[in-house]
Amino acid sequence: MTRISSAPRIDFSDLRRELELPGEFPAPAVAEAQAGPRDLPRSDRTDLAFVTIDPPTSMDLDQAMLLTRQGDGFRVFYAIADVAAFVTAGGALDAETWLRGQTVYLPDGKVPLHPKVMSEGKASLLPDQDTPAVLWTIDLAADGATTHVEVERAMVRSRAKLNYDMDPATLPESIALLPVIGPLLVARGLARGAINLPIPEQEITPDGDGWRLRLRQQTPLEEYNAQISLLTGAAAGAMMLAGKVGLLRTMPPPDPQAVARLKTCAKALGIAWPAGAKVGEVVASVSPSEPRGAAFLDAAAELMRGAGYTPFDGEVPAQPLHAGMATAYAHVTAPLRRLADRYATEVCLALHAGRPVPDWARQALPKLPDVMSTTDRRSNAAERGAVDLVEAVLLADRVGERFEAAVLDLDDRRGVKGGMVAVDEPAVVARCEGTMPLGERIQVTLAEADPKKRRVLFRA
Fold it and tell me: Is the pTM value of this prediction over 0.90?
């Protein structure tokens, strides 16, 4: 489902200044990025026919994949950009990445974690170039259960840069098994209690001299591709727990009272919750394109709070799990775009090889949660601020008009009843004041659309 509306030319520079986003890289950092990778021991796996799957315009390609049969099961080859081969601990580029934390995306251009000469060139898993990588080899049983994991440094060569518009029935041989393995991994996740929220994403894309705002639902191919990344993160988490050192991405289990409230919400919305069904199973049964389903998913999102990074060294954390995954999990698959992945990957390489974790990686573990938390907030603020601005510009000359909308949430702010609504066209999600029926379609009136404040307000 895709709904598209056009917006005129928009200046995002005020948002960049407000969030104090960094600009150009210092010359010494760029010089280090241009120098190319250090000579580290690695195997030659350029014989493997890797491909990448990313949005068409992406050039910072962190992951490449090859899926094969292995007896009755499967073998997953997952190559990850070897960023540590390009960034010297204690150098100018290393220092700059700690200031940035992660790549921040805005419609008029991203603020990258690494200089483009590296992140979109020498270190990116672009097709038809030999690229240093960290290669995960994960064997799966016929039901998708992990049976064996290896991780090593390797030289790889991607054969093609693919995107999500492909027909799952006619995929290239390298990933022809993705529609087979993906559903197995989804089913295993739901069985152990994983929660995947299929909430459509508000996405801003170029449209001539202006911008488009669209509501885009994740395709099955995207979900299956994500499952391979999650599989690798779970393998990394298990490896770290076994070695008693690492950096986990954690989220506390939902509060039982919050789950009880969600069950009450499901009943009010007429959504079936069979006896014994897990939250994730009920979520997976709901259509986000239906108003009641969208309202339920909005309520379910309240369970997914408290995500963070948990470092440990010598003693396993008391709470090592990620509630959304329902297992231990680590970020290791996006080192070009996320600082923590470089260090978590180095821990796994050392543990698997049976050697000590390098001091530069070990000493960084307790410092990373604060950096990632700060830059997470900045990245989220940039994404939300850009959407808010486009929404306000798009609707600025339509104050007083009536719109069809679905009621997603209800609240009471400072004694004023209201909630959040999703307008059908254009694809806007904003606050609406008034008494409204949860999970129903209603007519709302646009009361305010202020680009300077990046604020949109409807009234029922």
Answer: yes
